[in-house]
Amino acid sequence: MNDYLHNNKAIRYLISHSNHDHPRDGRCSLEWVSYIAGERHSALPECVSGEVRNAGIWLNDVAGGCGKDRESLRPLLLRMIGTAGDGKYIERAIAINESRYNPTLPPGVAVFSREATAIRWQSLYDTLDRILPREVELPPKMLDRALAFCKAGS
């Protein structure tokens, strides 16, 4: 389901927990962004702004522990490309911090519980979905990788 050929090589397009020293060990969400953008293997892609990158890393790493599916991050990843240096850092940083650290918890939900983490996760996911660009214009060299990544998630 998630295996596709790219340049005659089978690639497993699963989003893994944490970062990896080498792509053969898996790729976290931001390592996939680096791959699609044609950057070196890294969880710190240069094409993604710092506040968006940190939010993406947190969503990726916390997903399994709070009952969320890491694969649900897939729709946001292409939209992260190009956020570095686009002049929207402060606006996004405020929105991200508000959603991650100040979500409204229902009565009786302990602040450090799994349920509270799931609420924070969804709040941050929804915020990124709202503040990231709806359309991203990718250069031709990224399109093959981006299309294969998107097909793997369908």
Overview of the structural elements:
The protein has 154 residues and is mainly α. It has one domain (3-152). 47% of the residues lie in helices and 5% in strands. The chain contains six helices and two strands; from the N terminus they run ββαααααα. It has helices spanning 29-36, 50-62, 74-80, 89-101, 114-131, 140-152, and strands spanning 3-6, 9-12. The protein has a two-stranded antiparallel sheet. Helix 2 (50-62) packs antiparallel against helix 5. The longest helix is centred in the C-terminal third of the chain and has 18 residues, at 114-131. The protein starts with a strand and ends with a helix. The relative contact order is 0.18. The model is unreliable at 1-6 (pLDDT under 50).
Ordered list of secondary-structure elements with their pairings:
Layout (H helix, E strand, L loop, with lengths): L2 E4 L2 E4 L16 H8 L13 H13 L11 H7 L8 H13 L12 H18 L8 H13 L2
Antiparallel strand pairs: 1-2
Helix pairs in contact: 1-3, 2-4, 2-5, 4-5
